[in-house]
Amino acid sequence: MSSNKGNSAAAEAKKISATTLSFMAFSTVWGFGNVVNGFAYFNGLQVIFSWIMMFALYFVPYALMVGELGSAFKNAGGGVTSWILETSNPKLAYYAGYTYWVVHIPYIASKGSGGLKALAWTFLVNDWYDSLPAWQVQLATGCVFVFFLWVASRGLQPLKVLTSLAGTSMFVMSLLYVVMMLAAPAINPTASFVPLDWSWENLIPQFNVQYFTSLSILVFAVGGCEKISPYVNKVNNPGKDFPKGMISLAIMVMVCAILGTIAMGMMVPPEEIVGEAQQHFIANGAYIAFQRLGEYYHVGNSLAVVYGACNAIGQFSTLVLSIDAPLRMLLDDESARQFVPKGLLKQNKYGAYTNGILMIGVLSGSIIAVQLLGKGAADIISWLNKLNSVCMPMRYLWVFLAYILLRSAVPGKFNSEYVFVKNKAIAVSAGVWCFFVTAACCILGVYVEGDVLRTVLNIIMPFALLALGLIMPAIRKAQDAAGK
Fold first, then answer.
1. Is the distance from CB of 163 to CB of 409 less than 8 angstroms?
2. By C-alpha distance, which of 334, 335, 373, 398 is closest to 461?
3. Which of 38, 405, 441, 459 has the fewest Cβ atoms nearer than 10 Å?
């Protein structure tokens, strides 16, 4: 009897609080780059309005839906793929897993260039990297990419530790920037700060084509909270503490987005985020921010160097993990393996899927080659940033589809300790709404004002990647029929 009590007490001790959950989710979802991108794409302080709308109408219901899905399928370890499998069929689960993997292809293509830029800022503390012509940038990116494909094929696990450390340090520096910048006027009142315009006209955005075609940037920024779904049933009281944690998460992210935007507004004059200067700021804004912050505190370029070093480690280690982890999630899943050509299932002695890595090399390498059409490093990074905002949110569509299927099922088929909304019609409508917002932002995000070629390429790339997912089951079916 006492033993059972002891086990029960130990289990309770392992439970996590709503506060702990919210901080875990916050470090997963939020990053300093989101502040920079929002500030650049939405005309400075005007992004505050858009952040508030995005949190209230999209992020909060999204996070709470994830909570219910995670609670309903607490023993399913495959995340979104498992949710689709439980609510539909193996074929649809394969498409969910495939989508989660394939949207990382443009992301992988962007990490090499991002890492090289971080190294340039670490050692030179300036935007020298932007002065290089596109062919030199992409040649260097290609070499880095090939090297890390080889690293991924060796199954080097210590890089996961590096990624965790780099991610934590970047998270700390993001918060540090907000605190130090807001305190800077009091500590160094003689420094030059940009006066903030709080007039109504300056805070309300212009709802034009550029505004709506940039919303994918914000959707991309707030996505990814499905990664914390395994912890839903590990909180003290899932029915009450999980929604509290998610609401706390939304408040924390909103506060950091708004305060970060205000801090950025005190530092960056409007002319640095309009016209051609916008691309430069998107590519270098984070480094410039820490460089100027160091000037306010009379510590020179030290903050920019530290940020650059952390970002370089983070970019390169994330490159390896993005090659390896999503591929494993797809090919390790038994429900997905039956639709994948057998050649892709080949593993080496390190357990790495060699042909799968080779296919990533071809697909991401093609995107790197296409970027030769760019004008330089800043232009290429800006282009890839927009392409990622179109492709990466496509995986969220499966989250909302799983939720719609979950709440549309026969009552009693699935049991969840936590329910987002008890009313079935409202719950399904919320899922449909978030699905529609995500799809609309992905579609609108392909448009690049004044650049027909880039708009066409932004349409072709995701469609070509998704089409491959339709072809692979046909290849596997032919192989099975031929007995190969």
1. no
2. 373
3. 459
| Per-residue pLDDT at 157 | 62
**Token pair belonging to 461:** 């790339």
Other CB atoms within a 10 A radius of the CB of residue 215 amount to 22
CA distance 416 to 481: 41
Q: What's the chain's length in residues?
A: 484
Maximum separation of any 2 CA atoms in the chain, in Å: 78
CA 151, chain centre distance (Å): 23
Number of alpha helices (DSSP H) and beta strands (DSSP E) in the chain? 22, 0
Q: What is the pLDDT of residue 14?
A: 61
| pLDDT tens readout for residues 421-462 | 999 999 999 999 999 999 999 999 999 988 899 999 999 999
Checking 347-351 for CB contacts under 8 A at 24+ apart, the result is 348/153, 350/153, 350/154, 350/155, 351/155
Other beta carbons within 10 Å of 459: 14
For residue 4, the model assigns a pLDDT of: 54
d(CA 68, CA 434): 15
Percent above pLDDT 90 for the chain: 62
Contact 67, 246 (CB under 8 A): yes
What single-letter amino acid sits at 344?
L
Distance from C-alpha of 78 to C-alpha of 84, rounded to nearest angstrom: 10
Using CA atoms in the order 411, 417, 418, 421, what is the torsion angle rounded to 10 degrees? Answer: 20
Burial of 160: CB neighbours in 10 Å, binned 0-12, 13-18, 19+:
middle
Q: Which residues of the chain have pLDDT under 70?
A: 1-14, 77-78, 156-162, 230, 484
Asked if residues 294 and 80 have their Cβ atoms less than 8 Å apart, the reply is no
Instruction: Report the 10 Å Cβ neighbour count for 260.
Output: 26
Query: What does the pLDDT read at residue 9?
Result: 47
CA 94 to chain centre: 21
- Average pLDDT score, the chain: 89
Please give the pLDDT value at position 360: 96
pLDDT of 167 reads 72
How many C-alpha atoms does 24 have within 13 Å on its Cβ side?
17
DSSP string covering 242-276, please?
Answer: HHHHHHHHHHHHHHHHHHHHHHHHHHS-GGGGSTT
Task: Give 353's DSSP letter.
Answer: B
